[in-house]
Amino acid sequence: MSPQEPRGAPIEELAGKSQIAGILATHSRGVDRADGNLLSSAYHPDAGVDYSFFDGPASQLVAILAAAQKGQPVTSHRTSNMWIKVRGPQARSESYVLAYAEQIADSAATQRFIGGRYLDTHERRDGEWRLSHRKYVMDFNINRPSTVNWPEPAVALANFAPRGGQGAADAGRALLAQYAAGFKSQRNSTVTTYTDAQTDQALSKQALHDLGMAYARAIDRADASLMASIFHEDATVVSGVFNGNAAEFAVKITAFVRENIERCFHSVANEWHEVHGDEAVGESYVIANTTAGGKDTLTGGRYVDAYQRRNGVWKFKARTFVVDWTNAQPTSYETGGMYAALTARGCYGASDPVYAFWKQ
Questions:
Q1: Which residue has the higher pLDDT, 44 or 70?
Q2: pLDDT (tens digit, 9 = 90+) per residue, 97-119?
Q3: Which of 119, 237, 317, 320 satisfies CB 3.0 to 4.6 Å to 308 for a cystine?
Q4: 163 versus 54: which is more confidently predicted?
C-alpha cells in the first residue's frame, strides 16, 4: 500500500473479515457445546437457514440442534477454509467444515466423519456482524464402527487431560471464563496505532490466505480457470500428480480430478505467512479426503509456498505439496439413513451450489 492510498476501506474490510471469522467459529462452538444461547448469538433475529432437512428460521434450527445434541456424545465441528468477501455492510463467505459425530443405535456405535461447506450471507447491523442466512452443502462422509475406549477413572486421573462436554459440564467453558476474567481486569483505554508497514503486512497476509482458499475450491470443484488465476504466469508447482509450470498444472490437475476422483475435499489450517515487501513465504497444513477406486483416502500434508506481489496483486510464485501421512480404507460413503435428508451435495463444475451463491 502506498502512503497516498486511502486505507480506511481496506482496514474496515479486514476488520469485518476478522469479526465474521469469529462468528463462524462461534457457531461451531455453539453446536458442539449444545449451547442454544451461544448458537443464537451467531445469527441475526430474522436470519434463515437451509440445511435441506430444515429450511426456515434460524431460531427454530437453533432449538432443534441444541435439543438434539444434549445427552449425546460430544461432537466436533472443525471450521476452516474461510473465504470471506465484504462489501460495505453486506458480506458472503464459503467455509469448509469437518464434523465428527458418534451415533449409538441398538447398542452399536458408529463414528462418523462428515465433510461439507457453509455458504453464508452476513450483515452488519448497529456495528455488529452476524449471519443472515446459511446453506449447508455435504461433500463426503466416512462411517466406521466406533473405537472409542475411554480409560477407567483411575487411569484417566493418572494421565489427566480435560474431556469435552456440553453446556456447563464442558471443561473448556470454565477455562475460557477464567482466562477472560483475567483479561478484562487488565483492560485500559489505550488505543494502539499501527504503522503503514504493519497495515500492509495484515492486508497482505489476508490476500495470501484468500489465495489458499481459492486453491482449495479450484481443486475440489475441478475449476481450471480459477486455478490458473491464482498463479503468476511463470510460477511452478510440485504436486506429485503433476510437477512443472502452473498454467499447465491448472489444466492437468483439474482434468485428473474429474476423470479419476469421485469426491474431493481439501481442509486447510495452520496457516503461517511471512511477508517481506513484495515477497512472501508460507506453510499451511491440509487434510484431504478423496474417494476413488472404491477407497476413501485421507492424506495429511503441507503446502510450502512462495508468493510475489506484482502490480499490486499477490499470486503464487511456487507451491510444493509435502506429504506427511496417508490412510486408505474401503469406502464407507452413505447416501441413505441420516444422510438422505442432506440433499444439497457438492459436485464438480458450475453445478456446484457455490457458483450460484457467489453470483447473487
A1: 44
A2: 999 998 877 777 899 999 999 99
A3: 317
A4: 54
DSSP per-residue codes, 209-256:
HHHHHHHHHHHHTT-HHHHHHTEEEEEEEE-SS-EEEHHHHHHHHHHH
**What does each C-alpha distance from 9 to 16, 39, 88, 183, 205 come to in angstroms?**
10, 30, 9, 30, 17
| Residue with the three cell numbers 471464563 | 177
In a domain, 188, yes or no: no
Residue 351 lies in a domain: no
Residue 27 lies inside a defined structural domain of this protein: yes
Please report the DSSP string for 53-120 in residue order.
S-EEEHHHHHHHHHHHHTTSPPPEEEEEEEEEEEETTEEEEEEEEEEEEEEEETTEEEEEEEEEEEEE
More confident residue, 70 or 219: 219
Q: Which residue segment(s) compose the domain that 50 sits in?
A: 8-148
In a domain, 327, yes or no: yes
Q: Where a domain ends, among 128, 148, 168?
A: 148
Same domain (yes/no): 144, 267:
no
Going from the C-alpha of 81 to that of each of 55, 194, 278, the distances in angstroms are 24, 27, 24
Q: 65 — phi, psi (to 5°)?
A: -65, -45
C-alpha cell at 308: 510475489
215 and 135 share one domain: no
Q: Which of 148, 176, 209 is the last residue of a domain?
A: 148
Q: Which three cell numbers stand for residue 186?
A: 487488565
Q: Name the residue with higher pLDDT: 73 or 112.
A: 112
